[in-house]
Automatic annotation (TrEMBL):
Organism for this UniProt entry: Penstemon smallii
Superkingdom, taxonomy of origin: Eukaryota
Bilayer-crossing regions: none
Keywords: Dioxygenase, Iron, Metal-binding, Oxidoreductase, Vitamin C
Fe2OG dioxygenase domain segment(s): 47-146
Phylogenetic placement of the source organism: Eukaryota, Viridiplantae, Streptophyta, Embryophyta, Tracheophyta
Record-given protein name: Fe2OG dioxygenase domain-containing protein
């Protein structure tokens, strides 16, 4: 089975009897951290996962296109070995409706993964991986999900707690209504003075 819909080279770890170990990793390590850092995307209620390894290189998958994960929180561990290239690029957190909207300059974040290091990010944080230029890059991914968050999301209309485009739109609406109130007050003042 392919590890995800985007990569060809890799393996699903749950198929190799690692499900219990990964459950423990999520419960003892990822959930407590996500509770603190990502409470707005169900970080404290993570209860399912999809774990896999990926392998990049000239004779493997070369790069990975811009995407969001089917997860609330993703753990990405660089297992090595020796490689150049393969940097991760992040471009802002988005809800489903805004997933294809423009990136703001402050959202540009590039990260060069090092063997033995791990990155924990929201699944809705748009990202991709640049081409691995030489060697082989091997990564462990754990997509962590929250069934409570997914159920609540069906009834939610405002995603400004995590989507930066929703936040921008909300601020713009507030700015416009303040401007409209100011104009109205100025008009009234003018009428009273006349
Ligand atoms: O290649 C990487 O490090 C990123 C992998 C990734 O984003 C994913 O599998 O969802
Ligand atoms: Fe991803």
């Amino acid at each position: 089975m392919r590890p995800n819909t985007m990569n060809k080279y890799g393996a699903v770890l749950d198929d190799f009897g690692m499900e219990t170990m990964l459950d423990k990793l999520m419960e003892d390590f990822i959930r407590p951290m996500s509770k603190v850092f990502f409470p707005e995307v169900g970080g404290s209620t993570l209860d399912a996962h999809h774990g896999f390894v990926l392998e990049y290189g000239m004779d493997r998958d070369v790069d990975l296109g811009f995407h969001v994960d089917d997860s609330e929180v993703t753990l990405n561990v660089c297992l090595g070995k020796q490689f150049s290239g393969g940097e991760l690029f992040f471009r802002g957190v988005r809800c489903e409706k805004h997933v294809n909207t423009e990136t703001q300059s402050e959202e540009v974040f590039d990260y060069a993964h090092l063997p033995g290091r791990a990155v924990l990010h929201r699944g809705r944080h748009r990202h991709g991986a640049r081409a691995t230029i030489s060697g082989n890059r091997i990564n462990l991914l754990l997509w962590c999900r929250s069934s409570v968050f997914r159920e609540l999301r069906k009834y939610q209309k405002d995603f400004s707690s995590y989507c930066t485009e929703c936040q921008r739109e909300k601020k713009e609406r507030q700015r416009q209504s303040v401007a409209a109130i100011k104009l109205e007050l100025l008009k009234r003042e003018g009428e009273t003075a006349a």
